[in-house]
Specification:
This protein has ten helices and eleven strands. The protein is an alpha/beta fold and 265 residues long.
Length: 265
């Protein structure tokens, strides 16, 4: 003999079927909350990061990402002064350390993402015969582009290399200081200087320059790119998710495509 099921119990059972059916039987998953992210990143990351964020936002349409590129030291100061930044990617640990010391990073989010190399470049059609860092001391080499060492990590590494080789004073008198590493690249591309010191990835991005020497690894601090979520982020969950993507297999593949090597997390 069957017992009669009350209408209210039937309604509850039907509701459960609907919920589990849409969540488990191929229905659309719940969409993530909308989030607008601002990412401040070293300008040497521009080409790779532009591609990475395009991939990410195509798959996460509720997330928009505005990228702010510049010298890492300049970006660091902007964050210290309260600029609304969610994620920071620096071309050197120094700038990230400064923010960390002031308690401006979201705890547990800092990662060492990438590595790079320091190289000496000249214009593609140069006939100056520059083939080593020591050649920069020659009298016929008049102008050399370097990043400003205080705010531009590439400039800091360049100073370390030249100091290690014992030629910093001789070269510094010829230095044309740039606001960031891409400006160094532009000076060399246009032939306004005889040579410049940039990252290997910057040289790789241009058909107008050629690499004539790579700095010995022990002549400078390791070129490490750390990244972290900023503590004041208004969208920390979305910022974490994007940073995890960059540090994951697909993000790393994009960076490797542009010549970066991976650093330990």
């Amino acid at each position: 003999m069957f017992r009669r099921i009350s209408p209210s119990l039937i309604a509850i059972l039907l509701g459960l079927v609907f919920v589990t059916g849409t969540g488990l039987a191929g229905g659309p998953p719940p969409q993530a909350a909308k989030a607008d992210l601002t990412v401040s990143a070293a300008i040497s990351l521009k080409d790779a990061l532009d591609e990475a964020k395009q991939i990410y936002t195509a798959e996460s349409p509720n997330v928009t990402i505005a990228a702010n590129y510049g010298a890492s030291g300049t970006l660091q100061l902007q964050i210290e002064q309260g600029a609304p930044v969610d994620v920071f990617l620096s071309a050197g640990p120094k700038q990230m350390d400064a923010l960390d010391a002031k308690g401006l990073l979201l705890e547990g989010t800092r990662k060492n993402l990438l590595r790079n190399e320091v190289v000496l470049i000249v214009p593609k059609d140069s006939s100056a015969g520059i083939s080593s860092f020591q050649d920069l001391t020659r009298a016929d080499v008049k102008q050399i582009a370097l990043g400003e060492p205080v705010t531009v990590p590439a400039g800091q590494y360049a100073k370390e290399v030249l100091t290690s080789l014992g030629i910093y004073d001789a070269v510094n008198s010829k230095a044309i200081l740039a606001k960031d590493v891409r400006q160094v690249l532009t000076y060399v591309e246009t032939g306004n200087v005889d040579a410049g010191i940039v990252y290997a990835t910057d040289a790789m991005s241009s058909a107008k320059v050629k690499v004539v020497a790579t700095a010995p690894a022990k002549s400078h601090s390791p070129v490490i790119y750390p990244a972290a979520v900023i503590k004041a982020s208004k969208n920390p969950a979305a910022a974490r998710a994007f940073l995890d993507f960059l540090a994951g297999p697909r993000g790393r593949a994009v960076f490797q495509k542009y010549g970066f090597t991976l650093a330990g997390m």
